[in-house]
Write a structure and sequence with these properties.
453 residues, alpha/beta, Rossmann fold, GMP Synthetase, Chain A, domain 3, 3 domains, nine-stranded mixed beta sheet, ATP-dep_AMP-bd_enzyme, acid-thiol ligase activity, Long-chain fatty acid--CoA ligase, AMP-bd_C
Length: 453
């Protein structure tokens, strides 16, 4: 069933219920349903229907969600992109793929009869860009069933229902935040979509659930308001985050996934990551190796990349897929112990260092807000481990304090040889530190990256 059909059903059953609270509009389900129908008729009048690709670059979250659901109702595939992109940028990121329509203004209302499409679960029903930590966007597309059929197990896992107000404090161009908003509307909840973490917006304080990335959790917990649950994805939880949330009366549901794989594993109680409902997991490692690649098989996998562009998604003949994330050896029934993306590994003096292992230790140093670890070229070692810190306060911890923590928690090969500080780390759309961009700026001599003596 299209998500738009869910919204229209809620509009008929609970028309006055708040549906969307954005900086551009606040809509009840009745108002949202009316706008979706009118916009879908407009699209059909433009020749948009099943098999069409509609590129959507709108800054207003309410207008964006209306356009996405209108395309859904019309039977087309919506592709959400950055509202700052012009037509030339759209042409570059879509490559040889040409959208049938580019939406850069809110869709107008067209009067007429209600649309009642007959969708197929195999329809291509959602597309969004994934850049990972590289900054090179790829359009990931998924079939209707892989998108909407995961709503029920996710609702049960996170305890989200029609009575909730779900805060989505990030851009809907991110698949993490887009899923949060669309799922909220599918279950009849209110999607609070300010596009960022609100500081004074009262609507944010009325939220009962928040979807976010780890680096925003601490700020949310300082003013939890009526929050009951925090759904955290995109990266590993920092040390002590779950305990801090419990003190604030907030339950944390953490999950691991990827735009291409959707949900892979979840941790709702602090017991560790275990397979998301319907997911099988394998960690494929060479005999005796301490790390292997994570492979998943599930109904939730994406179809692939639009335009057949290359990317990290790989499949095998058995229906398994991987994006190259690494984990400790795993057996069914055990906890999945992630160690990050394979391309984050650093080869130094014959040793392989996983950047996330080092980052996990350094984040426990008082005064470190976040950290990125990369490899810097070295004439004899190949690379040396290099840490770039984002301080919590006005200044970073001393190098002596950092090296003391490194000696106590890291093997010799893992300890950073070079230390830098930066006012703020660049991040991907989903809020993760952009590792490749940090490395590029460091190599380019960015003056904002200061070496610690």
């Amino acid at each position: 069933m299209p998500v738009a059909d869910h919204v229209l059903r809620h509009a008929a059953e609970r028309p006055a219920r708040p549906a969307v609270c954005g900086h551009d509009a606040e809509l009840s389900y009745a108002e949202l349903g009316t706008d979706i129908q009118g916009a879908a008729r407009h699209l059909r009048g433009r020749g948009i229907g099943p098999g069409s690709l509609v590129a959507i670059g709108l800054a207003g979250p309410a207008a964006l969600l209306t356009a996405v659901l209108a395309a859904d109702l019309a039977g087309a595939t919506p592709l959400v992109g950055d509202p700052a992109w012009g037509r030339e940028r759209w042409a570059r990121v879509t490559g040889a793929l040409t959208p049938d329509l580019l939406v850069t203004e809110p869709l107008p209302y067209a009067p007429g009869r209600a649309l009642t499409p007959d969708p197929d679960p195999a329809d291509l029903a959602w597309a969004c860009f994934s850049s990972g930590s590289t900054g090179r966007p790829r359009a990931v597309v998924r079939r209707r069933a892989s998108w909407t059929d995961s709503f029920a197990p996710f609702s049960e896992l996170a305890g989200i229902g029609a009575g909730d107000a779900v805060l989505v404090p990030g851009p809907l161009t991110s698949s993490l935040y887009a899923f949060a908003a669309v799922h909220a509307l599918a279950v009849g909840a209110c999607a609070v979509v300010p596009g960022r973490l609100p500081t004074t917006t009262p609507a944010g304080m009325r939220a009962t659930v928040v979807h976010l990335v780890p680096h925003l959790l601490d700020e949310v917990l300082r003013r939890p308001g009526s929050l009951r649950t925090a759904v955290v994805g995109g990266a590993a939880l920092p040390p002590g985050a779950r305990a801090s949330a419990a003190e604030a009366g907030v339950n944390v549901v953490a999950y691991y996934g990827a735009t291409e794989l959707s949900f892979v594993a979840a941790d709702a109680d602090g017991g560790g990551l275990r397979p998301f409902p319907g997911v099988e997991i394998e960690v494929r490692a060479e005999p005796g190796a301490g790390l292997g690649e994570v492979w998943a098989r599930s109904p939730w996998l994406a179809d692939g990349y639009l335009g057949d562009v290359p990317g990290p998604l790989r499949r095998d003949a058995g229906g398994w897929a991987s994006v190259g994330d690494m984990a400790r050896p795993y057996r069914e029934g055990e906890v999945l112990r992630l160690r990050g993306r394979g391309d984050g590994a650093i080869q130094t003096g014959g040793a392989t260092v996983v950047a996330e292992d080092v980052e996990e230790v350094l984040r426990t140093v008082p005064g470190v807000g976040d950290v990125v670890v990369v490899g810097s070229p070295h004439p004899s070692l190949g690379s040396v481990v290099t840490a770039i810190l984002e301080a919590e306060g006005a200044s970073p911890p001393s190098r002596a304090a950092l090296e003391s923590m490194a000696r106590g928690g890291l093997d010799a090969a893992q300890r950073p040889r070079r230390w830098y500080a930066v006012p703020s780390l660049p991040r991907t759309q989903s809020g993760k530190p952009a590792r490749a961009l940090v490395a590029a700026r460091l190599a380019g001599g960015d003056p904002d990256i200061r070496r610690l003596a």
